[in-house]
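Hi everyone, sorry if this is the wrong subforum. Our group has a chain we'd like a structural model of before ordering constructs, and none of us has done structure prediction before. Sequence below.
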Amino acid sequence: MHCIFCHKLSDNSKSVEHIVPESLGNKTAILWKGAICDKCNNYFATKIEQELLNQPYFVSLRHRNFIKTKKNHSVPSKILLPHPNAGWINAWIDDNEDGLSICFEDDENVISLIKDGAINKMIIPILLEPTPNNYILSRFLAKCAFEFLVFRTKEENFLDFSECLKEEQFEPLRKYARYGEGCKFWPYHQRRIYGEGDLFIGFEREKSYEILHEMDFLSIELERKNIEGEEHVLVELYFILVIMGIEYAIHLAAPEIDGYERWLENNNFKSPVERYGEVRTPNPNSHSPQITQEMIRKMNNK
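Answer:
Right subforum, don't worry. Here is the predicted structure as tokens:
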């Protein structure tokens, strides 16, 4: 067995790869041992995923949605306590049976100021989307796209399919994801399609449900040719990933996104992951910012 990224032997690898990190709620989209070697797994965990999770938007996202770390720890975020002896300080907020609880980095000082009435409010910054043209996010999406190709083929087909991944058509994406080589920046498409705390109601389920992340491929047909009696179809393949209501799309074959933007225009800007019969509804119990369709329109058109 060989690693899909470095192509080195991976039979003795012990780690499993989460396509989307556990720290963003992924418990199901996981590659089996050996699909990615321990060295590549560790590289992505420390140099790509951790860098991404430490960016201000993802810290804010995990903080306000109580998404904990792999070790079940709350994510701290900087909040502002408007007092000369406090200012910006790390805080941990948890949602439990008794309601919300909050811990401060400098507990004794802050509690003293609160008891004395010197502090009666706090300001929590809320970032609604990642910074655009984000290099680390771009490489993260390239990694996820390459891994999802393998995930969709299933473990029993891995040995045969892993040989296909060595073909020239996959090399640019592989090298960019693993080594940052080939191009300075692989563009992607980003837009919010629903609020991060929204619930969904589908005809296949009786109760409403929340979606932390979802992913799929979009195949766009470009041309059909008949070669020696066989029909050949030329397509563009895009990986679509939605995390807490923000949709990201990346082209697997080349660093360009024009084809996806044209597809959106031709399909009334619907999302490829949109499911028939599914209805979106705001969650009245969510602590996430309530994002309306009008706000989504303004964010996507700015």
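For your construct planning: The chain has a mean pLDDT of 86. The chain has eight helices and twelve strands.
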